[in-house]
């Protein structure tokens, strides 16, 4: 594998070499089945909707050789984006960023921007910056740290030879928060897809009753993200919003798909339920 | 990779070359995040408890090259057991057993035992045995079919050069049923671990209240399987049984661990709750 690292910040604005994504999750709790890998499915859903193609999800022990093999394989297979989860925390076995540095032979050092992020969090808690905490700011040289709005360890993004390596924490709330804070807008910028949103407002039908219908639509429309958001009380005065985010190669295509899904769902609701009030 | 297939049934009673397991899941619904990979975590939990070590969980598109690469890699890495899920059904894109045959250069043909299993299911439903249905009995030559007690497609077990390849359906209920019907007892036989069981009966405390405590114990005792089974009504007259299955290299070790966990959990319950009645 060639060592070709771009330290130029501008390069972060060029899209990856292709839309293929490999997800690599570390964590003993995933390999012994104590934790279900919801991080992978959450990321996969988001990425698919944004127009990327997830080609592999790999759970690997957090040991250097094992992790390194999978990372190199992802890059050799020309994954445009490699997303890792786990191993960003302060403990001795949180080594993802060290492993990435060693695998790609890039210096592993304190990133000043990351250090400022970590400092801020601990200052706000009036906690000292110990060696273990400082470790969370150590990254492969040339990385961009990603702000963690709900935890301490920043995420990381690194350009490497046409691909981006993105590292997120294993704690789902932190992983999601980092993704939604900054990363999602970068991914949207990289993607050639256009997105169109519709909201259907439904009164008088419980979310649980509508769930099978939403699941069916999700499976039918793979270029869309369909989700219910309960706004009223489930049993008393149910009021839910169904969010439909459709993607297409052009704005027109995305709008058309969003309309089609909206009509389809409204039609299904009207067929199956009476007494509900629908606004679109 | 050497082609060395044992057609001798007796070989199925020798344990695999080691305790390492690779799980390979196929399915677009896993790669686009519509389905959470609960099959992998369920299998991982069961296998860990039985004394096996899950080294990789890999989700791969159901395309020949991609699947074949991962299967060969698992065998090259000397996985004692490779478990696949998905791709056993009657439709055109259910090709796991064909892919395994092609990857290992083993003839792909109707297995008579499997055919009898499939026939029985359709006869019971007074349904004809179509070409698509017969396909579910096609397997790599030398396979042992695994009975599917809740569906139509049999599972498959194949000995290959020190390793076992085991294929299960993607539908969770069928995957679990096949595992528990015949496979689990074979795995128990292969494993050198001993198992000890304890039950704690708790009255007057809700399962949801005890849940965090059980999660904590599960994370602490990795050689054990700890699960609550609600027997009474959650809110009215709660009565739950906590099942503790502990493993060890000897019966004594397993018994000791089971006792330790039991005492630990009872102690935690007594510290955190008053008013509960505990029997062991």
From TrEMBL, chains A, B:
InterPro entries: CinA, MoaB/Mog-like_dom_sf, MoaB/Mog_dom
SMART domains to which the protein is assigned, alphabetical: MoCF_biosynth
SUPFAM superfamilies per record: Molybdenum cofactor biosynthesis proteins (SSF53218)
Boundaries of every MoaB/Mog domain copy: 22-190
CDD domains attached to this UniProt entry: cinA
Pfam families for this protein: MoCF_biosynth
Alphabetical list of NCBIfam families matching this protein: PRK01215.1 (NF002291)
Record-linked PANTHER family: NICOTINAMIDE-NUCLEOTIDE AMIDOHYDROLASE PNCC, NMN AMIDOHYDROLASE-LIKE PROTEIN YFAY
Record protein name field: Competence damage-inducible protein A
Protein species of origin: Fervidicoccus fontis (strain DSM 19380 / JCM 18336 / VKM B-2539 / Kam940)
């Amino acid at each position: 594998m060639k060592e070709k690292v771009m330290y130029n910040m501008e390069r972060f604005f060029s899209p990856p070499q292709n839309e293929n994504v490999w997800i690599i999750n570390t964590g003993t709790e995933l390999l012994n089945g104590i934790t279900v890998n919801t991080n992978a499915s959450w990321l996969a859903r988001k990425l698919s909707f944004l127009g990327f193609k997830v080609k592999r999800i790999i759970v690997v022990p957090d040991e250097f050789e094992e992790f390194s093999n999978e990372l190199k394989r992802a890059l050799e297979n020309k994954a445009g984006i490699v997303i890792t989860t786990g191993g960003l925390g302060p403990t001795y076995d949180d080594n993802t960023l060290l492993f990435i540095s060693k695998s790609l032979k890039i210096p592993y050092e304190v990133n000043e921007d990351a250090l400022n992020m970590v400092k801020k969090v601990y200052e706000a808690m009036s906690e000292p910056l110990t060696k273990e905490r400082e470790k969370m700011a150590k990254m492969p040289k040339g990385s961009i740290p990603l702000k963690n709005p709900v935890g301490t360890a920043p995420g990381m993004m690194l350009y490497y030879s046409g691909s981006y390596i993105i590292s997120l924490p294993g704690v789902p709330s932190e992983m999601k928060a980092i993704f939604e804070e900054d990363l999602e807008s970068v991914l949207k910028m990289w993607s050639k897809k256009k997105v169109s949103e519709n909201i259907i407002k439904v009164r008088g039908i419980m979310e649980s009753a509508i769930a099978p219908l939403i699941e069916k639509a999700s499976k039918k429309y793979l270029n869309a993200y369909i989700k219910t958001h309960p706004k009223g009380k489930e049993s008393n005065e149910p009021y839910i919003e169904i969010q439909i985010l459709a993607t297409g190669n052009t704005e027109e295509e995305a709008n058309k798909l969003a309309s089609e899904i909206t009509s389809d769902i409204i039609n299904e609701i009207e067929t199956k339920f009476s007494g509900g009030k629908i606004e679109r």
